[in-house]
Amino acid sequence: MLLKKTSLWLLLAAQFVAMSVPLFAQEQNLVSIQVDLSKTKAPMKPIWAWFGYDEPNYTYMKDGKKLLTEISQLSKVPVYVRVHSLLVTGDGTAALKWGSTNAYTEDANGNPIYDWTIVDKIFDTFIERGMKPIAQIGFMPEALSSHPTPYRHYWKPGDNYNDIYTGWAYPPKDYNKWAELVYQWVKHSVAKYGQKEVESWYWELWNEPNIGYWKGTTEEYIKLYDYSADAVKRALPSAKIGGPEVTGPSWDKSATFLKTFLDHVTKGKNYVTGKTGSPIDFITYHAKGGPKVVDGHVQMNMGTQLRDLDKGFEIVASYPSLKKLPIIIGESDPEGCAACSEDLHPQNAYRNGTMYSSYTAASFARKYELAEARGVNLLGAVSWSFEFEDQAWFRGFRDLATNGVDKPVLNVFRMFGMMEGNRVEVKQNLAYDFKKVRDQSIREAADINALASKSTNSAGVMVWNYHDDNVPAPDAPVEISIKGLPTGKVALLHYRIDKENSNAYEVWKAMGSPKQPTAEQITILEKAGQLQLLTSPEWITPKNGETQIKMKLPRQGVSFLHFKW
After folding, report:
1. Which residue in 293, 393, 385, 301 sits closest to 339, CA to CA?
2. CATH number at residue 447
3. Glycosyl hydrolases family 39 N-terminal catalytic domain: from which residue to which, for each copy (predicted)?
4. pLDDT digits over 205-263, tens only?
5. What domain count does the chain have?
6. 563 φ, ψ to 5°?
7. In terms of domains, do 186 and 141 share one?
8. Which of 51, 60, 268, 331 could form a disulfide with 286 if both were Cys (CB 3.0 to 4.6 A apart)?
9. In whole angstroms, what is the distance from residue 385 CA to residue 135 CA?
């Protein structure tokens, strides 16, 4: 009797939901996607295997080490990690938007004292996991700052963001001492980790020098770059150095800074050598979206992020001698402030659930296409998201995990980690191509599309149902036709991220959103945070190398079809 009553309630509930959805919304047209594994487009570069965060001292803390282990395990290729504040003065205490290593101090006579203990602890944590540092040269040690007071800030969510720009953001009072610091750091790294290892790193100068992170002028940054690049190359001529890590180039001030910097490294007078130009091995800048709350729901703006990307690509492509240099998008995210929590910034309410994961799938696919269209060499796009130690559960920071429990977005990167070999052709009855997303964002129909790859023994098809407006919508009927599979039996594994799968946030809410989950609840949440199969693995037999997969894909859901043979 209880079972019958439950079934009746479920039937009535389903009928109520159906009646509450407008008729036009129930009539979903079939989305047909064609994947041809035999038509190669380009190598499937792991541009997603790059992560970063403000707080370097979280690296070796409990949840930081756990998350870094998981990130390192999701990829066959080394994952690169970029962190701020590696030269900041302090005792290594972790805090929001803050970090320190005490790498450089001076004695009473102004003589340098180098201490690499904390820097090494950070890099050791990466290298023990097979990861690689993007070694950010910054920020200014207190003893070298031309304006050292005040130095330490105590920012917290809700405070004025400009309060973070204190003495560490200023130029050095002695450029030669600064250069010697950089030289000693690189020499120490080679002695500790070996030349071959350090040659695989990327050394870069500073972060967002066109805004408050740099309290000097553009020319002073360029001078600092020349001194830093010279010091890196003197210590290890084969080391890679780059910059300038400006904010999004679709903003005129950023574009001007980037062009001024690139003009200098190509034809300017070097501040150290007096010769023309400066060493540069890769180019960096940032790209961010801009969510807001509209009519009570979060509305993303993927177009804003893609315009940042594309403008930077356009600028780099305009320099013939630089066009083929690797480009690293040093921060590539849906918006700007990872430490601005949802409780104080409601536009960030996308972060805990599946909107973040579907946005990530759709936006990374377009990064490949934008770079291809401009003919530039996109090496990596850093997701500026990690974890925030000892914060409230699911507080809504831009992070990959909360208190050691993975969020849905991390599972998209697990999907990417299974995509190897070459990108292959995907066609469908397009609502959007990359140009339309760049120019208009996704404000009309949903963006239902796919990214596909093929290697010697496997193929992967990532399919998403994304919309900038986070409002309820019916599931979309999707049919994926795949050509180019081998003859004989092929294993198919279908993974899914949606409200019911690979989603610890929904499980936490179903528990009643406990502020202090029990040990048993944490175990359940940890399991729910892993990437999960939608159906059992199965063996399929493609006919003439072709097969069709049909599914219902929820709004903001992501499926991954993994074929193995």
Report:
1. 385
2. 2.60.40.1500
3. 32-528
4. 999 999 999 999 999 999 999 999 999 999 999 999 999 999 999 999 999 999 999 99
5. 2
6. -100, 135
7. yes
8. 331
9. 17
